[in-house]
Each structure stands twice: as C-alpha cells, then as structure tokens.
Automatic annotation (TrEMBL), chains A, B, C:
GO terms classed as biological process: galactose metabolic process
Protein EC: 3.2.1.23
Family assignment from sequence similarity: Belongs to the glycosyl hydrolase 42 family.
Protein residues bound to substrate: 103, 141, 324
Record-linked CDD domains: A4_beta-galactosidase_middle_domain
Keyword line: Glycosidase, Hydrolase, Metal-binding, Zinc
Name of the protein: Beta-galactosidase
Molecular function as annotated in GO: beta-galactosidase activity; metal ion binding
InterPro entries per UniProt: Beta_galactosidase_C, Beta_galactosidase_Trimer, Class_I_gatase-like, GH, Glyco_hydro_42, Glyco_hydro_42_N, Glyco_hydro_b
Domain Glycoside hydrolase family 42 N-terminal: 5-393
Gene3D superfamilies the record matches: 3.40.50.880, Glycosidases, Golgi alpha-mannosidase II
Domain of life: Bacteria
Annotated catalysed reactions: Hydrolysis of terminal non-reducing beta-D-galactose residues in beta-D-galactosides
C-alpha cells in the first residue's frame, strides 16, 4: 500500500478537501500528519487548539484515507524554550547551546522536556486515540537526526552520574572497571564524574563508551515514554517510528524499536548516495548520480526490517530532487517507481511519499513533492500511478517475507568502539558492514540483519563483520546454531567495560574459536600488505591481527609473512584482517557453497530479492539487461529482458 | 593624478618635511592620513590632541600636496573598549567576542559605538572641515573587512528584533511571510525572535536573509552618519570610502555608496590572485603569480566605478610584496605601472599607493611601500616616475569615461541567496558573475556594472547572471530598455521574503519571459550533463532548471534530454543552466553581433579598455604582442608592438 | 644500559616480585615508576599513602634494579581540580576550559598549581631523596605535550601583564618597542594588556612573540621549581626530564634543560614517521612504514644530546605498535634492536622501554609493552635479549661521544617567528631545519645541535638554517669561531622585539656579512623560481630575499634574474633563498671539502654514526647492503655485509 506525508497546517483549509480527493484518486491509503505542528496544537502555553486537526482528520477519513499521526515533539515551540531554556542541548564538541530556529532543539536528558513530551503526546493520544480514521502513530520524527543523541548539558551530566551509580553501585567498582588508576583518573564519588568532553587529550574509552550507552538509553527512555502513553490511550492502533540510517543515530536502534509494531525508514536514495560517495571520483560516482547506488537503500531496508516484527514501512520516500545533500540531482525517469517496488521486494508493507505538495517557503522549499507548490503534478506522479497498477498486479499480501538463509550481524557497540578507539584512522565499522552486505548482495543473496543477541536459528550462514563485546547469550546462541559463523577482526576485542579480555582477545569467543590475538596493527589503506587464501593473494590492510592457535583449529589462510590470517574450528571461522570486496565475494561464495546456499554473481547494477514465491529483479542500468531468472520462470511483472531502470518479478517454474 | 597613504604618527616629526618634499618631487598630488590614529587624536578619554595633526597638514599643504583625512573609526582605542566592552562584536559562527588587539573590533549594531564614531568624526570635521589643504574625506577604512558585518551580539539581536518589527508591523505578518508554521517556528512577538545562529540544523532562509539585510542596513546607517557629519561640517570637500572586493563585505555596496561623491577601491592584484586561484594547479596559477590575473583587478574597478557618480579612486595600490596572502611574490617589473595605467583606463581619477614608507614594526612590517623602512627607494619608485610621465603624455582629463554598450547586472541578493540556500555546494554567485565578466572582457568589451534597480537605458546588451528577487522597478526598467536582456538561471527564483513565487519561478519575470521553472537539480561540477546551442554541445552543470513554456517563446537551446535549456521571447533570453566560459563567450559574442556591439577575441593575457577616444591595451605576457589596434591607429603611448608587461594607448584613425 | 617504564599501581601486588625478577633476568638496569600516580600517593586531600610505593621500591631494589621516580604532576587528581578549578588551562584557540579526564590538565601560569606541584614534589623528595635504590628523578612527564604551553586563562593574562611590566618597565617603552601606534593599539598601563587571542584579525607579531616567550618562561619556572626541590632533598641523585620532539613544545628546551644532569627523549619512530609523512603518497611512505624514517629519530636524539651535559637517555622506547598515530603498524622484525643500538650510537647512556606490560584498560590499552597483558613475552622481547648481548660485546663505556665536526644551530625564536609571521604559508622552520639535517646525514656526517648562544668553538662547519634575532653574544661567538658559517634566509630578520632591524636585515649580522635584504618574496612551493650555483640550476622557492652588497663580499650564486642568491664574506656565507635537499647536499658537501670534513654519500636507507673509535652503521633496507666501512675495518658487531634491518660496528684499521 502507498501513503503520503501531508502538512495541512501549511495550506489554506480551502485546499484540504480537494487534496484528500486527489490522494484517494491516485491510489494512496495512508496519510501522515501532525508531526512538527506543536505551535498549532498549542499556540500559547496550555492553550490547545485541536479544531483544525479534528477537521482535517475528518476530511481525510471521509475521503477513504487512513491517518497516521506523528507526535510533534521534534519541534518544541518558542514559548516552551523561552520558559525552559534548560531544554536546549549542548554541543559536546563546542560547548555551545544548540538553540531554537530549526528542529530537534531538545536534550533527551532534560526532565523538563521529558515531562513536556509526555504532556503533548498524552493530549493527542487522549483526543485521537480512538478516532476511527486514525490507523496508528509515529513517535517524534527521525529521532537523533542532526547529531542530537549526545549532549553536554548540565542535565546530561547529572543523568550520567546517576546512570553510572546505578550501573556500578560503588565508585571503586567503576574505577576498577574503567582502569581509572591510569593517569590518576580515579573518582572518589559519582558526583565527581565529568562527561568525557573538553579534556586535554583523549579520555578513557570506557568513559566514552559509558557516555554513549547512557545517551542511547536516554533516547530510548524518552521514546518509550511516548510509546507507553500511546499504547495506553490508543489501543489497537499501531505505533511506529521513522528511522534515518541506523549508523547515524548514536542509538541502539534495536532497543529503540523494541516496543514498536513495525519500524519505518525514510528513504532518500540520491541524497544518501551523494553523501556516501562524496569522496569518490566522477567516474565512480556518476553512474549512480541519478539512480542512487543499488546497495545503499536496501542496506537500510534490510536493517529496518530486522528492528521490529511487523512489515516495515518506508515512511518518507524521495519523489524528486531534495534540498539537503551536497548536490541534489533529479531522479532518472523510472527510479521513483523502481525504488518503491524495491522496498516492497524487501518486505515493506507501505511506502509513503514525502511529501504531498512542495512547500513554497522555509527550509525545504527546494524539496520536491508529488505536487508542485502550484498543485500541478510533479515528475513522480505518473510513476506513482504505475506503482498502483504494479501493486494491483502483484497482490503482495499473498507473499509474506520469509527468513533469509544468510544473516548479517550488526553490532552498534562495534560501531561505537570503532569511533571511540580509532587505532587506525581508516577503520570504519559502517563501511566494513556495508562491504560485507555488498558482497552478499552481489552474490544475489537475501540478507537478514540480526543484532548481537538476536535469534540466529535457521540460518545457514551467519556473517559477523565485528562483534565488539560478545555477551554470554550471544555466544550461546551462536553455539546452538547449526550455521557456519564467520567472524571478522576485532570480534571479542573487548569486555563489556571496554578493556582487553582476560587471556587476550577474543576472550569469551574462545569457546567457539581457540585462538589468541597477540597483537594488532593498523595500516594506511593505501599501503596494504597481503594474505593468501585458496591460492589467491588478496590485500590485507587497515586492521591486521596477529593470531596464535590455542587449541584445535586449522589455518585457512596466511599472511605473506606466514602468520595465520583465517582460522577455522568446526563451523566457526575467524578472519583476522580486513581485505577488500573481491575477497569477501570469493570467500563468502565458497562458504555459501559449503552451507548449501545458492549464489549467482550479478551485474554491478542489477540486484534481486525474494518475497514469498516471488523473485524481484531491478535493473539500475541505462540499458536493458536479461533478467537473472531461471529457464521457465513465470513473469508476474515485466519479462525476460528488463528495461533500463525497470523491474521484473517472476515465480520459479512450476 | 597620483597619491599616497601616509602615517605621520608612525615616524619622527623630523622626517615629515623631507617626506612631503619627496612626495611632491615624485609627482604625487594627494596624501591620505589620519585613519587608524584615534589613540593619538584622543590619547585619554575626552582629551584631544590635534596639534601634531595640524602640523602635518600644514607641512603637506605647504609642500603643495592635498590632504585626504580618513576617519579613525576602524581602530577604537583600548580605553574606549575597556569602558564599553559592549562595543565588541560577537562571532556568529563561534559565539566568541571578537576582542581588541588588531582592528575593526566594533559592532555596527552598538548604539554606544555609533555615538562614539559620530563624536570622533565630528571632532575631526569641526577642526579640519574648512582647512584649505584638506581636499576631502575617507570614511572609516575598508568597512566590513575581516568579516565584520555579521555579529551575534545582544545589541545585534535587539536591533534585529526592532528591524523585523519595523518591516512587518505585526508578528503574524512575519510568521506568514517567512512560513514559520514550518517546523513550529512561529513567534508570538518580535521579542521572541532569535538571530539565525546556533540552531540545531539549518534555519529558515527567510530568517537568514532578513539577518543579512538587517546587518547590511546597520553598516550603511553607521556609515551614513559619518557622511552626514562630514557634509554638514566640511562643505565642498569630497567624501569617499575605500572598498575591498564587493563580494566580501556582506553589504549592499550600492546602498553604502549612495551618498558618496565617488567610490574608491584598494587594489592588491597579487594578493587577490593568490587567494582567488588558491585552488588552481601550478600550471594554471604560475602565469599570473607575479602579474596578477588581468580580469581580477578590473572586475572590481568596473564595479567600483558603478557605485557612485564621480570618477573612482584607487585609494590603496599595491607597490610591492604584501604580507597577507598565502604567498606574497614580488610584482614582475613593470606591473606597478601597468596596474596604475589600467585603473586610469577603467576610469580612475586618482591612483594612490599604499604606503609611502614600509613600517618596520607591527602587523604590516612585511608590506612594501614606495620607500623601504630606511627611506631608500623601493622597487616601485621608478615605475611611479614613469607613470607621472605617462599621465603627462595622456592628459586624461580630456577623456572622460563614457557609458559602455554592455551592462552586467550585479545582485547582492543573489549572492546572499546563493550563500543561504546552497542547494548545490558548487553554486557560487561571485564566480558566476566573474565568469560572465571574463567572457565579455575576452571579447574586448567594456563593461558597466549596474545594480538591479539601476539605470539600464542606453545599453545594447544587459547581462544578468542571476536576479534573485526582481522588484517591480527592475522589471519596468528592463521592459523599457531597448537592449537584449540575458538572464541566467535562478533569476526570479524567489519573492522578496525568500519564498517561491506564486505560479512558480521566475514569478514576476514572466512579464518578460513566459516560462515556468518546474524543478531544479544541482549536479557535482565534475559530473556535467550537456546542452546543445547553435549545433554545438556545451556542458550543463551545477545548476539545471526544468523549463515549461507558458506563452509565446522560442526554444533556443536544448538539454541532451530534449528539454528547453535556453528560451527567448522578443529581446529577453533565459538561460536555464550554468555552463562554462567557452559557452558564455560564444553565446555572448552572438548576442553582441545581433545587438550591433563590435567584439574581438583577445589573447588570454591581453586586455583592452576605452576611455573617451582613447583605447588602452595591456599586455600581461612575458613576450611582446601586437597591439589589437585597427590599421591606422594613432598611438599616444607605446606602439603597434606592446612590450612585455607594458601598455599601449591609441586613437582610432581620423 | 637498559631500562623499562613500570606502573606498579596498575597491577596486583602479587605480580610485583616476579616482575622485578624478570626485569633483572632480562638484563635491565633501570625502572621508572611513579609518574601519573598522584591519586595513589594522595588519595584524599592531604592524606598521603606511600606504603605501596615504599614496597615496590624495596622489591625492585632488592632485585638489583635501580629506580627512577617520576613526579606525578602531569596528572593532578580530581579532588584537586574540584577544589581549585582555576588550575585548568584555557585553550587560546577556542576559549574553552580544558578539563579533567585525561592528563596535563593544568595551567603553567596558575599560582595554585605551582604551589601544589611543589608540595607533592617535596613530599616525594623528602621520603625518597636518600633511598639507596633510587638512582634519580624525572620531572613531570613530557612537559607541554598536547599543546599545553599556551593558555588563555585569567592567571595567564595576569602573569603576562606582570611579565611585560618586568621586561619593559614603563608602558611607553612597550608601546614603542612593539610599534603599538600602528592601528591605535597603544596601551596606557600594563593592566590594559590583553593576551593576543580572539582579536578580529591578526595581532601584532611583537605581542605574539612576547606571549610565546612568557609562556615558555612559565614552563621553565614551573619545572625549575621541581628541580630545585629535588636537588635540595635528594643530593647526589640525577634529575632529568623526558622530552617529546622539541619543535612540538612551544618551549625554549635549552632553557628548560639548563639545570638537568642529562636530557631524555621518548622515542616512537613509527608513530612519528606516520605523522611526519602523513601528507606523502604511498610510494614515498611505504618504505618507512614499519621501520620509521632513519633521519626522524636521530634528528631528535642529536637535539636531546645537545640539551644538557650528560649522556642522554631514551626514557621511553617504542617496543611494538602504539595507539596514538593515525595508523599504528607493527615494527618490522629487528627494528626494536636497531632503534636501540642507534640511540647508543648517537650517545645515549640508557635506553628504557615503554612499557613493561601492556595495560588491558584505559587510553593506552592498544599500546604494546615488553609483555602482553597476560604476562607473556611480546614480539620485542627476544630483540631486547639480543641488545643485551650486543651491549656486552660493545662495552660502550669505553667510547664516550666526542664533539662532531659539524654543528647545526637550532633557534626556537626562528621557529616561533615562522609561526607568528607566516608571510609564506609553506615556510616551516622545523622542516627547513630537518632538511639541513637530512642533507648532512646523507653525507655520513655526525651532527651536533647548538642553540644560538651555544659554544661553537671547535667546529669546522656551523650550519644556521635561520637565526631570527641574533644576540651580541651569538655574533661574538661566531666571529670568534674558525668554522665556516652558513646562514640560511631570514637570518637577522628581526630585532629582539620583532621589528625590522635598523638599516634593514640582517641587522647586527652585518658584522659578519656586509649585505642588506632589500625585500622578501614568498612563493607557492609548486611554483619555484631558480638559482644557479656552481654551474647547476636549483629551485629557489618558498622564501626569496633580494640582497644588496654593502661591503666586501663575493656573490657565490645568482638567481635566474641575476640577483645575488648566495653571498660570501670570508668564512661567512649567506644563502638568500630556500632550495631543496639536492642543493643542500651538493652545497654542504662542497663546504665540508673546503673545511676538511670528510663526507661520503650514503644509500637513502643506510646511516652511520661514530662514538669514540667506533663507527656504527644501520641498514633500514629489506635487503643486505655492504657496510660503508673502510678497507681493513675491524668489526666489533656484524660484518662487511649488513643484513636487513641490522647494524654493524667497526673500528678503523689500526
């Protein structure tokens, strides 16, 4: 099903009824409204005005549309900030208060704002919790966007001290756990603890990790309070949240999504591609400039699907040029349809476009909508019409998403560790994760993302690019699994308090892999060393561990100097160095073969994805390509030759 | 005529009389003094000491020199700052107070400093307003240099709130005009308004534009107050100001210059070239390293000429290596003379060198003068002597500057819009304007700069690289003109409140051009698309608009995808995309031909300029070149072969 | 002799005795302890706990080891900061307080911290000053590391004002000396003086130089106070300090070391090479990635040797990968031994490894030690064993370091001047000094570093890359010397108050060289001009002076335009421009020939160094090379073919 984001408060009421009619006529089902409208819900302190909102819900509902209400907590109004300036966050890098004038100007640690957030959420939940036209709720908006998870406010400092007290009980335990004897960093009481900001040189990684976890916990607690209110006052309606790329939030997104019915993602392929490839030369970037890179969107679709049980939504789908990337091209013709179908192929339940009509004012006036500011149809309109026809042809409700054969473990602690303790400047957990994902996708594999303590049963192959601080539960899950499990370097690198584990890394992972990491070196990425696997030489760069066997294990690959580079014990494999995508593709292909998972090497701009009995294929090329379908495939959409920027869907031959 | 900048307070009085004698003997007419000397005019609060200044004026006057007094307001003394620290500006980027220790440490919004500025100006005007040796006044010095227009002080915030109240009358009007309903940015009263600084993410472009305009208005008001005092107390003397490159001030320079007799420019060709070409490789930069780029100086000469009615001055002319660029080469032999003659060719009335004698101390001790610190003649000295002879030969008073055939419209609002709403990171209004200028100059054209509401009558061609918010008066002027008018992309892009115009851009410009801009895309400059004009393919990059015809118009060029790229309706032409200088040269050449304006393609390092009946040609090459003169030309200076770094001046054959 | 850095407070007491036994068994002599342990020496304000320290000293001493105690002042404990937050320094760039959470969080100008530093030093000195196991003391740790010399605290401002008053006596003298009449920067009293921070644009170079000198003086005074206490309470024990690279401290290191018995250096060849070559491409960097560059370590060894009379120490020697460079490779096999022997070759008395056992917690958990965290031997262990054997074979006490034939003058004022008055962005004193050093080393020369007023008697060649503000004593020393003296450009550039000298540069140096510097130009390094010496053309770039002869002197080289580039008068030579290392090598080789100093051109990765009768050669290559030894050389270590990453030591044939 399709939806759209709508801001009735930005338009004359005279347009509302016609807008609703056109939405319905286009084939849309859902309309998200309300987020950002706090100054209209409560124009003066304590003075609510819901009449206009009652009216638009009525209009939309009567037109046959279902309403999703966003809580407006991303945009506290000026009067609230003026009454309680302590709501504002403080930038940990600069020490400056981050003020009013845009959005997200609030501190997750602020008790005042927590109370205010609950109050406005409750007011909305009480009024609309049982409204028949309301289908569900979106909490806040793109929580943690604009680097808002970390704050160095007095409230954050007080909260952090309390969090440390709760975790460690007494201050000596904290000093010991963090190793504060080093550099005389010992505290005598919890109220002596500083935030790890503004120090003369780097602070203790344990300190920084605690601050990261504390900050993530505040986001989750802030969010959970809204969910709880909505659950209590709007039973039977769904609650979701629209995520931005998971690596950009500084939050444990699995924890954040724990109480949601399903997760949603805001999908801007061109903006993301522009930013992710900003360092690439023109020849590398240009082929993706107006299509987006085929692995960047789905990388987040598959992560979003893994966050919560229900079929995920695309809450905001780019329909044309946006305004916030370095450069903002128009999508190539066909891409809005392609991106939409791709989301459904990866398991989306709903794709909702952002936004209905381009606003002629304020920060996003250069951001396209389905309509131009003058209400004429923008370029994406006919593509949405085509999607409506496609969806009718596909009848996707028949084809629920099945568990994949391959799981990719995503570990936010590994990301944080990589940021906190760089060791090698080019070590970047997100890119390492993405490289593994891209290698799997180039092999035509469906990929599920699982968190460290997630359920890994039923997978044939579990790929773990890095697992910073493996818990007992994680290890037990992996031991219980029948899958091949591949660990990348830096797995088991630390204890939960960010110290080296007893007996050297990989610490508790030795239950699976009897090895010891004797030392680590990091290399400039332009100065790789080498490793030899299966008779071929691959680069070994960026992060290289020196491994000692500490039990029954075989060496599957060696460095140029003869040291072990890949070690295997039973179904567990440890890759001690980072290499390149060519290696990952070859290596994972071989493991899939062993695990009985079929692979197929795809064209760089062709990707496939299965949903139930259907196989979707997407062609990002400017030329037609043959569908990578088996002989006798029955095409439900398209055919054996996939046009430029087009899709095909087939069933296996009967 | 020639002049020099002199700082008598920096030298023993014993040198003054001999200095005056040597200035006169060299052939100088004007001597600028006094700016920066506040601590000597008023060594203690309220205690004035003018005796030394009386004396030097007397000495200079008796030596036959004319004195220009600079008001010393760029350098308030320490005691004034200590008494009124609220004078200091606040950096909007960092929030830090910008303190004492250099110059320009004052906030244009400070009522205290406005009062103090008026007080010291009045004291000087009263004492010297009728002094027979005083020819005129310079206000302040390089106003807004060092990024001082914008300040985030409490005074600026209060002033901005009052400015908004004066402009919008009631707060709802402001909220509506800016679209503050977006993101709940609505204010309930003017005193709730913040400066657009320190927000979590980007602020409303309308908000930022208002802050820019407010800040520019404060500079103008500060300056106008000085002009008013000088006019009142020094009737018959000229008042001018020495501008730095107009794009660097954040000020509406036409408004600033409105009450001046003429404008002045501080010309440092090597420093400017070093900075403007800092991103260029050695092969591109090196040819200009010791000559400066031939289009960078005149770009500002021609703008300066357009600011005020009288013949402009070069108030400060580089005579040797300076101290403030990244690297500071020596001028190639002949260049000081060449630059001086070039200023006269472009209409200068006076060229004044900075400075008489190199100071052996403080910030500018590595900045050359006409004399070295030991009073010996520095390298430029014989070139000044040559200029004196050249001027005698030319007798320029006979040759007033005539209106050019081609006008280039410079729009400070377009510059500010480009900075506020980047949309594409590589969009840079100043470089776009400069590219148009360079194309015109490479065609040997004289160019006048006009502001948006300036007089365009009498031109054959009006080139408007971008016109952000066209006013009714601008449109009326253009409609009344018989010129061909070429608009670049982003013309008519916004209303005066920085919203998209009714009916889409170019809004009110549709009176001239019946088109609608349906969408905009921005591309990385290294990933251009293409457009075809006149059978040739040119790049279309950075900024590309999708155009729909909305009336009688012809499509003069198309994008590679067939869309309209250049549209023409009568004498109005709209170019919907940015291209390169090769395109601009070809295209403008063709329009000149149509408009009956003669063009001639010049060597990259040769430029010509007319003044009355005279044509000047300048050779920046290290080799001689033939003068681009018609057969039978009568040479007044030089001859048919122009030497390296030399000039020739001729009249057309009789 | 060898040593190690040990942190008993970080380990269970149960490990201490065994650690001591293993240290001794390995062949170590010295153990440094105590620095960073303030929170254990004084866990509560005024409550000392020395029992544990008594015990470990006893254990180490009884094991046959000698103890070096570090004063713990680099790490004031939290309770001290909380009681006296004014101890914290203020970052002059950002204005932010640099807080607790790492190390070096104190302001050298703080009277409170000076008192506290003296108090804890005294407590240690009183307790251990006569302890028989204590061999000596290390003051603080890596003083001024992490850019801590400069602070913009209120204490620094007050101190600076007093320092100015002491230097200039009355404020008019200061105003005149600095040229404060420029830009009305005049002060009326010393308490009006600001620190040269936060100004709108650049501040007076005299002001900045004074701030640099003041700040350096505070470091020295802070340090001298510790030395004085230690001398008074621990007679007969040595006092030293462990320096970081001398150019990184912002301190006059010769002044700092004035009262030390010997200086020590912390030697991290791979980290330094990673940072110093960060701008180099892979082909240039890669050969040194795991060996370090052969001239970067010794550049600092030779400087350290010149700081104080006794044989210098390496107080911290890298034994494996570190944690603080951009990338942190493992040393190539053999390099830990090679680096150690190289330090001895350059005159070291002791090399002490950092650290005994890798800590599993806190900031340096990824920094290798001699042992891994689990007490197993890390990679360097067998190389230390080999060094022990080497030292036994060499018996270095027989071979004291002799004065070299060539002196390189290192002038911290020239470095500061280059940073304060950039003039050309690519002018970098440290790289200029290093280039001269590298050229001399490539010629197989031993090099002594001398400060400007240092003793230059006995040298055959004195190389002075730049001498900013030559004193009468320096000039007298140079005149008295029989050496050839080569000055680089910018010598004699300024008076002591950072003004141009009377009669133009080189001012007082005209006693040696009758020339005048008429002007200076700076060029982009990629746009060099040329100079011709000895029939060959070399680049002349970055800094170029125009020279006039002012007496008896010959022109030894000319610029391409014919101007003098190298001038010579008797034994004094002035090189007026920067060139490249090829020029320096050719030119210095010719001067050595004249001065009777033997040279030999070496392979880029081979270096030699003499100690007494011994000649050491070090091969950084991955392949063997012939030892650059004379026929008949008697090898004490190694032989005529030096293996990869190996050394040879020989005596001349009898």
């Amino acid at each position: 099903m399709l939806g759209v984001c709508y801001y009735p408060e930005q338009w004359p009421t005279s347009l509302w009824r016609e807008d609703a009619r056109r939405m319905k006529a286009l084939g849309l089902t859902y309309v998200r409204i309300g987020e950002f409208a706090w100054s209209r819900f409560e124009p003066e302190p304590g003075v609510y005005d819901f009449a206009w909102f009652d009216e638009i819900i009525q209009i939309l509902g009567e037109a046959g549309l279902k309403v999703v209400i966003g809580t407006p907590t991303a945009t506290p109004p000026k009067w609230l900030i003026d009454r309680h300036p302590e709501i504002l966050p403080v930038d940990p890098e600069t020490g400056r208060v981050r003020g009013f004038g845009s959005r997200r100007h609030y501190d997750f640690s602020s008790p005042v704002y927590r109370r205010e957030s609950d109050r406005i959420t409750l007011a909305l939940a009480e009024r609309y919790g049982h409204n028949p036209y309301v289908a569900g709720w979106q909490t806040d908006n793109e929580i943690s966007c604009h680097d808002t998870t970390l704050s160095a406010s007095p409230a954050a400092k007080a909260g952090f001290q309390a969090w440390c007290a709760a975790r460690y009980g007494d201050i000596d335990a904290l000093n010991t756990a963090w190793g504060n004897v080093f550099w005389s960093m010992e505290y005598r009481s919890f109220d002596e603890i500083e935030l790890p900001v503004d120090a003369v040189t780097e602070t203790n990684p344990a300190h920084r990790m605690a601050y990261r976890r504390y900050s993530s916990d505040q986001v989750v607690a802030f969010h959970d309070a809204q969910v709880k209110i909505l659950r209590a006052h709007s039973p039977g309606k769904f609650v979701t949240h629209n995520f931005i790329p998971m690596n950009e939030t500084g939050v444990d997104n699995h924890a954040l999504a724990a109480d949601l019915d399903f997760a949603a993602y805001d999908n801007y392929p061109l903006g993301r591609t522009d930013l992710l490839m900003a360092g690439d030369g023109a020849e590398v970037f240009r082929p993706y400039m107006r299509t987006g890179h085929p692995d960047f969107g789905t990388f987040f679709f598959d992560q979003t699907r893994g966050l919560a049980p229900g079929a995920f939504w695309i809450m905001e789908q780019q329909p044309g040029p946006v305004n916030w990337a370095n450069h903002n091209p128009r999508p190539a013709p066909g891409m809005v349809r392609l991106w939409t179908l791709e989301a459904f192929a990866h398991g989306a339940g709903v794709v909702s476009y952002f936004r209905w009509r381009q606003a002629p004012f304020a920060q996003e006036q250069m951001h396209a909508g389905l309509l131009r500011p003058d209400s004429s149809q923008a370029a994406a309109w006919p593509e949405i019409e085509a999607v409506v026809r496609d969806l009718a042809a596909l009848d996707l409700d028949q084809y629920p998403t099945a568990r994949a054969k391959v799981a990719l473990m995503v570990d936010v602690q590994a990301q944080w560790l990589g940021e906190i303790e760089r060791q090698g400047r080019s070590y970047d957990y997100t890119h390492i994760l993405l490289d593994h994902y891209r290698a799997l996708r180039a092999l035509s594999l469906d990929v599920d993302f699982v968190p460290p303590e997630g359920d890994v049963s039923g997978y044939a192959l579990v790929v773990i690019p890095a697992l910073a601080t493996p818990s007992a539960r994680t290890i037990a899950n992996l031991k219980a699994s029948s899958a091949l499990v591949v660990f990348g370097p830096r797995s088991g690198a630390k204890t939960d308090d960010v110290t080296l584990p007893e007996g050297l890394p990989p610490g508790a992972l030795r239950e699976l892999l009897p090895i010891r990491v004797l030392s680590v070196e990091t290399l400039r990425p332009d100065c790789p060393d080498a490793m030899i696997w299966n008779g071929k030489t691959y680069p070994s760069a960026t992060w290289r561990e020196e491994i000692e066997l500490a039990g029954e294990a075989e060496v599957a690959a060696r460095y140029a100097d003869g040291g072990a580079a890949i070690v295997r014990a039973g179904k567990a494999i440890y890759v001690a160095s980072l290499s390149d995508r060519a290696f990952l593709t070859d290596f994972l292909e071989s493991l899939c073969a062993e695990a009985g998972v079929a692979t197929q090497r795809l064209d760089a701009k062709v990707r496939v994805r299965r949903r139930g009995d259907l196989t979707f294929a997407f062609n990002y090329n400017e030329e037609p390509v043959p569908a990578p379908a088996p002989a006798g495939a029955v095409f439900v959409l398209g055919g054996a030759l996939i046009g430029p920027r087009d899709a095909a869907v087939w069933k296996a031959p009967a």
